[in-house]
Design goal:
By secondary structure, the chain is of the alpha/beta class. The chain is built from ten helices and 14 strands. The longest helix is centred in the middle third of the chain and has 16 residues, at about 145-160.
Length: about 350
């Protein structure tokens, strides 16, 4: 039995994760940590959540603890991770603190010095489908961001196969449900501001997930020798509770057509339980993935007049499951040698 704890239990991701862990046949949830909710039940703070007692961070003993999930803000997550690692606890961090490859990049995008640069090289970037060889017995797993998960899963096989035109720039147009902004009340995510509305933010190349996408796309495709293209990434706030739909506009290499692209993706994910390439003519919807750990992908090729062919890839995930809590459980399963689907199907 794996003995676990969740830090930051009252946020959307933390409560989603607890819901998965209390139903997981191989996990005993020892602690749910929340300084703001300590002394109460999670069900009292998050309606519909499991009836799990909440404890303060200073009341958590680490003896006998196997793994801790950190659903904390960046900065605070790294500081907590260091204490847990020193105590011999494996850490799966759902913040951004260990996702980027170096401390300078982290400082540039997060406006603060990294709390522990020495741990960056040893952190496993937990895009599970591409990390499973490094996950068994890993001490520190950096769970990917939700937008990067929705973009990297379709892009990595395409770049590896050489399907992207030389010198191309890929446009990633992503829409996320409101839960991606977190549970802390903010004016721009309030019902009156969001309902019946639709808006872009951090347009072009200013969102903090951009360096994560580009750096790991380059790392994961480097062995193929194909250069990783730059990304223009614009996220949007979608007036639904959960889910991400990303549409990628990919200039297609001259030697590739829709059939070759489909082959590259279906071959890459034929044995994957959580990634599905939809049949020809079927378009991705959030309904394919909401409340599941799945990523669904659809493909089309557009041929504008007097222009090169454009591949249009659409992917969808649930930002709270495959984009956060579900992927964290998938990573935990791989770390401890369990089937990756344990606790995530049904």
């Amino acid at each position: 039995m794996i003995h676990g704890a969740v830090y930051g239990a009252t946020g959307y991701t933390g409560s989603e994760l607890i819901g998965l862990l209390v139903r997981h046949p191989g996990v005993e949830l020892r602690f749910a940590v929340s300084s703001s909710g300590a002394g109460r039940s999670l069900a009292d703070v998050v309606p519909g959540a499991p009836d799990v007692p909440l404890v303060a961070v200073d009341a958590v003993p680490t003896d006998g603890l196997d793994v801790a999930f950190l659903c904390l803000p960046h900065g605070a997550a790294a500081e907590t991770a260091l204490r847990l690692l020193d105590a011999g606890v494996r850490v799966i961090d759902l913040s951004a603190d260990f996702r980027l490859p170096d401390a300078d990049m982290y400082a540039a995008w997060y406006n603060r010095a990294h709390p522990s640069p020495a741990h960056l090289a040893g952190a496993v970037y937990g895009l599970t489908e591409y990390a499973r060889d490094a996950l068994p017995n890993a001490r520190l797993v950096a769970n990917p961001g939700c937008y990067p998960t929705s973009i990297l899963l379709p892009l990595v096989p395409l770049v590896r196969a050489g399907a992207v035109a030389t010198g191309a720039v890929i446009v990633a147009d992503s829409k996320s449900g409101i839960s991606g902004a977190g549970r802390v009340p903010l004016l721009h995510t309030s019902f009156v501001e969001v309902a019946g509305n639709f808006s872009a933010y951090k347009v072009g190349r200013s969102h903090r997930h951009l360096p994560e996408i580009e750096s790991h796309l380059a790392r994961l495709t480097a062995p193929s020798g194909a250069p990783a293209p730059p990304i223009v990434f614009t996220p949007h706030l979608l007036p639904v509770p959960r889910g991400i739909l990303s549409t990628l506009y990919v200039p297609l290499a001259p030697s590739f057509d829709l059939a070759a692209v489909r082959t590259a993706l279906t071959d890459a994910y034929a044995a994957e339980p959580f990634v599905t390439v939809l049949p020809p003519g079927e378009q991705v919807q959030l309904a394919h993935v909401v409340r599941t750990n799945r990523c669904a992908i659809s493909l089309e090729v557009c041929q504008p007049p007097d222009s090169a062919a454009m591949l249009i890839v659409t992917s969808a995930i649930d930002n709270l499951v495959k984009g956060a809590a579900g992927q964290a459980v998938q990573n935990m399963n791989a770390v401890f040698g369990l089937p990756e689907t344990t606790g995530l199907l049904g």
